[in-house]
Amino acid sequence: MKVSVVIPAFNEEASIALVLDAIPKDLVSEVIVVDNASTDGTPSAARERGARVVREPRRGYGSACLRGIESLSADAECVVFVDADFSDHPDEMPTLVEPIARGEADLVIGSRMLGRREPGALLPQAYFGNRLACFLIRRIWGFRYTDLGPFRAIRRESLDRLRMRDTNFGWTVEMQVRAVQEGLRIVERPVSYRRRVGASKITGTVSGTLKAGAKILYTIGKLWLRRA
């Protein structure tokens, strides 16, 4: 199976090489690093490690992911999304890809709640936000998620069906709700999680936390109203 990796990256010069070096080379056909208007050496560091770098000038996690999807090779069959801050463990990628390769799942979420978390890796505000979002999804759509973790794998044809739109913090929850709405086969797998390299641009600040939380709740509400 042709596996492509999409890595959204904004000013992750200190960590991007670590992420790329940890990706299982025998599993992956292509690695796309989406430079989300970085002002440091992130693009150069990624190219030095053999990644294909594309640029997305519109700031936003979702914008970078959408640009990565547009850049996928035509023969990509499975897409893995992983963050560029080295908080995820890219070497655990086979755990996410295997259920799709065996034809048992369309979307596999790497759950930090089910796996091992380094102390301090998941800040309290992020933990609470995840719990609240998963609770609302369960109450509204009847599907039990444990996490909105960014480390995930999805079948390419299933990804196309979701018609993803969100350009920033609502990306992960949009994918998970749309997957339920589309009747995809969804499973979660435990993944490890460590403290990221450098400071978080979202949960590391009060304003970032508030914006991310508000957008996640807004996205859930919007999808619920569309359903209603």
How do you describe this structure in short?
The protein has helices at about 15-20, 40-50, 60-70, 95-100, 125-140, 155-160, 170-180, 205-225, and strands at about 5-10, 30-35, 50-55, 80, 105-110, 150-155, 185-190.
Q: Layout of SSEs?
A:
Blueprint: E1 3-9, H1 16-22, E2 30-35, H2 42-48, E3 52-55, H3 61-70, E4 78-81, H4 93-101, E5 107-111, H5 124-141, E6 152-155, H6 156-162, H7 171-181, E7 186-190, H8 206-227
Helix pairs in contact: 5-8, 7-8
Folded structure, characterized:
By secondary structure, this protein is α/β, with parallel strands linked by helices. The chain has a single domain, classed as Spore Coat Polysaccharide Biosynthesis Protein SpsA, Chain A. The chain is built from 8 helices and 7 strands. The protein has a 7-stranded mixed β-sheet with strand order 3-2-1-4-6-5-7, with helices on both faces. Helix 2 links the parallel strand 2 and strand 3. Helix 7 packs parallel to helix 8.
Q: Please tally the β strands and state the result.
A: 7
What is the count of helical runs?
8
Strand order of the largest sheet: 3-2-1-4-6-5-7
Structure class: alpha/beta
Q: Can you give the helix content as a percent range?
A: 25-40%
CATH level-4 homologous superfamily: Spore Coat Polysaccharide Biosynthesis Protein SpsA, Chain A
Assembly classification: single chain
User: CATH first level: which class?
Assistant: Alpha Beta
Based on Cα principal axes, name the global outline.
globular
> How many distinct domains?
1
CATH architecture: Alpha-Beta Complex
- Ranges where pLDDT stays below 50 over 5 or more residues in a row are none
